[in-house]
Design a protein that fits this description.
- The protein is α/β, with parallel strands linked by helices and about 160 residues long.
- Helices cover about 30% and strands about 20% of the residues.
- It has a six-stranded mixed β-sheet with strand order 2-6-7-1-8-9. Strands 3-4-5 form a three-stranded antiparallel β-sheet, with helices on one face.
- α4 links the parallel β6 and β7.
Length: about 160
Amino acid sequence: MCLKIYTRKKDIPKGTRCEICNDRYFKGMELHNDEVTKKILKEIDNAYYHSSRAFIDRGKSPGAIDIDQLSTGCKTLLNIVYNPETCFSLIECGHNALEAALTILSQGIALWEYPSFIVTNIKECNVEIDGRKFTDTMQVARYFEHLMKEGYDDED
């Protein structure tokens, strides 16, 4: 299994729901007490699992905080993990969430329109982008650079 990423809406398989409002979709969600959830919380928001409805943040606030206060990037990746048959847009994700999507997620579907990615450290990944398999983040960055140079256009 791997994370499947599409760079154009039109390439998402027919019958696959595509969600662009990640915050709204996350409403009512509960955190799972598993390693993937813990990695996502730590990597993106520097947060720690507390309960199904709360997390402990970076030490700025005493006590547990409701999960509705997580960043949109964190919510997006959790949406992908918890709902692997639905495609979620990465448009509102910051660099740290985009890198985490590539390096942490091993299943799910994402839409990464207007692809760009800056590699600071080459890391292993297991993703399929537009039907092509990638095993490290440098390969992903080169593919996105190629798309941009070739005049990538969602309307093709």
